[in-house]
Amino acid sequence: MKNNDKKPTSIVIFGATGDLAKRKLFPAFFNLFLDGWMPEDFELLSLGRTEHTQEEFRNYILENINDFSRIKNFSEEKWNQFKEKIKFVRFDITQEESFIQLKNQLDGIDAKLGARANRLFYLSVAPSFIEKVSKSLKENGLANNMNQDRMIIEKPFGYDKDSAVALNAMLAQTFKEEQIYRIDHYLGKENVQNILAFRFGNTIFEPLWNNKYIDSVQITVAETVGVEDRGGYYDGSGALRDMIQNHLMQILCMVAMEPPTAFESTEIRNRKVDVLKSVRRINLEDINHYTVRAQYTEGEIDGKKKLGYLAEPGVNPNSNTETYVAMKFYVDNERWKGVPFYMRTGKRMSKKESSIVISFKEVPCTTFQDRIKKMQPNKLTINIQPEMDINLSFMTKKPGLDMKLKPAEMVFDYFECAPDTPEAYETLLLDALDGDSTLFMRSDQVEEAWDVIANIQTAWENGNVSKMVTYPAGSSGPEAADELLKRQGHTWLSNSNETLKTKKDA
Ligand SMILES: NC(=O)C1=CN([C@@H]2O[C@H](COP(=O)(O)OP(=O)(O)OC[C@H]3O[C@@H](n4cnc5c(N)ncnc54)[C@H](OP(=O)(O)O)[C@@H]3O)[C@@H](O)[C@H]2O)C=CC1
Ligand SMILES: O=C1O[C@H](COP(=O)(O)O)[C@@H](O)[C@H](O)[C@H]1O
């Protein structure tokens, strides 16, 4: 929906002076503006505690847009138009008076327009503020239009199942479920969205998408960064909560879900919940068998020394928080029974890579047994980042006079087809402006995802059930993670497009 079809909207960013706003939110809004996706009439009410003049704040946004983002077609003229939409508002969430003043400002905007604008509240603040903001919005009548007012909530959404249930119940007192947009930015990534197009927009893959043909699935989200300046938050969270419960679990849902009857929010979210309900819960006594948790020690990445986790600022030097998790899940339904889903995620790994690898079963017949020692089973790799492609490996005849086989690859590369693919936050903010919640998490999805990891949380928190192992910064993770797969004759598969890329770049 381009801008002339959109209703006027007042966008209110709580935490506009924070890290997320400067790195992701303002650049995304600016890109949407440049591409003509923002409504004709909108205001970005930017709330923060620290005092700023309008000019200071707008310059700060401009500097960060230049530093942090890929602005596709920056123009001075467009920036000058956009900056007029940004209104810095000094705001203290703990003060009721701030909400009353904000209401006056929003009402003033409506009065100028001569119509009630849509209101989009973005809570880019610590989770401890969600309850206060939500209640004050309600009590002061800032969000009293069920059809026009929406709220975007950042992760983490709770810290376990009980807290997520309580948070959902609290939010339900102010907002209808359709007004609540729980963000998981992985769902906005281009190649994550593409999973549904790939699976359900083609006839050739879906018939093979089951335990008859698929041997195993791997989901990897590896980062080279450490905890940066978020040590305080991360140390209370760890990789299981920070990544597995949300991003990796959502990717699992996209890979494993049954076909939705329509590309429609309720239907798609129902199918995802079905997957989460089918994930086999790991018994407390089996946690060690299915999971590995680890912490990085000091090491080197790209020739630069990196601190160990325990020496990072904001981290307790005796911390028992994991920075790496590897685990095996089963989805106990007719389609997936017996297929292991391996997941791993870690900070300070040797390279950044988010990918899904679908390994198919070995060819059943023996036609070529005399000509090749080991046939390489077909493998489909969906690279989410930094590469963005889909890569199918298959056996082919080696060119020549005799019949020899070798593996080959077919690649669909997003960057070659569309170098300007939108950032995840652009997609998600646009959907929220348009009232499309398909790529956001519904309350039951969040709760079910917490339920999947509940026993692991309990076991790890109670100590001595599962030993914490270590891995040096800049490595590919702990040996124990390799052992987890070896037991079933598997190994971690890395980005299969790498050799091809290296050759192309050379
Ligand atoms: N940063 C990231 O990469 C990611 C962040 N998130 C989530 O996004 C949310 C925001 O994170 P982030 O931007 O990093 O946090 P920051 O700590 O950088 O920013 C916090 C913001 O909250 C504001 N704030 C704090 N107290 C008050 C108050 N009493 N009244 C009004 N405003 C207040 C701060 O204002 P001021 O600075 O003016 O005091 C600041 O704008 C968190 O829920 C986080 O978990 C999620 C994924 C990634
Ligand atoms: O939500 C989070 O995600 C980032 C990784 O996101 P990416 O888009 O850069 O892959 C992670 O670093 C952070 O710890 C986590 O909170």
TrEMBL record:
<protein>
    <recommendedName>
        <fullName>Glucose-6-phosphate 1-dehydrogenase</fullName>
        <ecNumber>1.1.1.49</ecNumber>
    </recommendedName>
</protein>
<feature type="binding site">
    <location>
        <begin position="92"/>
        <end position="93"/>
    </location>
    <ligand>
        <name>NADP(+)</name>
    </ligand>
</feature>
<feature type="binding site">
    <location>
        <position position="185"/>
    </location>
    <ligand>
        <name>substrate</name>
    </ligand>
</feature>
<dbReference type="InterPro" id="IPR036291">
    <property type="entry name" value="NAD(P)-bd_dom_sf"/>
</dbReference>
<feature type="binding site">
    <location>
        <position position="242"/>
    </location>
    <ligand>
        <name>substrate</name>
    </ligand>
</feature>
<keyword id="KW-0560">Oxidoreductase</keyword>
<dbReference type="GO" id="GO:0006006">
    <property type="term" value="P:glucose metabolic process"/>
</dbReference>
<feature type="domain" description="Glucose-6-phosphate dehydrogenase NAD-binding">
    <location>
        <begin position="12"/>
        <end position="194"/>
    </location>
</feature>
<feature type="active site" description="Proton acceptor">
    <location>
        <position position="247"/>
    </location>
</feature>
<dbReference type="InterPro" id="IPR022674">
    <property type="entry name" value="G6P_DH_NAD-bd"/>
</dbReference>
<keyword id="KW-0313">Glucose metabolism</keyword>
<dbReference type="InterPro" id="IPR022675">
    <property type="entry name" value="G6P_DH_C"/>
</dbReference>
<comment type="similarity">
    <text>Belongs to the glucose-6-phosphate dehydrogenase family.</text>
</comment>
<feature type="binding site">
    <location>
        <begin position="15"/>
        <end position="22"/>
    </location>
    <ligand>
        <name>NADP(+)</name>
    </ligand>
</feature>
<comment type="function">
    <text>Catalyzes the oxidation of glucose 6-phosphate to 6-phosphogluconolactone.</text>
</comment>
<dbReference type="Pfam" id="PF00479">
    <property type="entry name" value="G6PD_N"/>
</dbReference>
<feature type="binding site">
    <location>
        <position position="155"/>
    </location>
    <ligand>
        <name>NADP(+)</name>
    </ligand>
</feature>
<dbReference type="GO" id="GO:0009051">
    <property type="term" value="P:pentose-phosphate shunt, oxidative branch"/>
</dbReference>
<dbReference type="GO" id="GO:0004345">
    <property type="term" value="F:glucose-6-phosphate dehydrogenase activity"/>
</dbReference>
<dbReference type="GO" id="GO:0050661">
    <property type="term" value="F:NADP binding"/>
</dbReference>
<feature type="binding site">
    <location>
        <position position="49"/>
    </location>
    <ligand>
        <name>NADP(+)</name>
    </ligand>
</feature>
<comment type="pathway">
    <text>Carbohydrate degradation; pentose phosphate pathway; D-ribulose 5-phosphate from D-glucose 6-phosphate (oxidative stage): step 1/3.</text>
</comment>
<feature type="binding site">
    <location>
        <position position="352"/>
    </location>
    <ligand>
        <name>substrate</name>
    </ligand>
</feature>
<keyword id="KW-0119">Carbohydrate metabolism</keyword>
<dbReference type="InterPro" id="IPR001282">
    <property type="entry name" value="G6P_DH"/>
</dbReference>
<dbReference type="GO" id="GO:0005829">
    <property type="term" value="C:cytosol"/>
</dbReference>
<feature type="binding site">
    <location>
        <position position="223"/>
    </location>
    <ligand>
        <name>substrate</name>
    </ligand>
</feature>
<feature type="binding site">
    <location>
        <position position="189"/>
    </location>
    <ligand>
        <name>substrate</name>
    </ligand>
</feature>
<feature type="domain" description="Glucose-6-phosphate dehydrogenase C-terminal">
    <location>
        <begin position="196"/>
        <end position="492"/>
    </location>
</feature>
<dbReference type="Pfam" id="PF02781">
    <property type="entry name" value="G6PD_C"/>
</dbReference>
<keyword id="KW-0521">NADP</keyword>
<feature type="binding site">
    <location>
        <position position="347"/>
    </location>
    <ligand>
        <name>substrate</name>
    </ligand>
</feature>
<dbReference type="InterPro" id="IPR019796">
    <property type="entry name" value="G6P_DH_AS"/>
</dbReference>
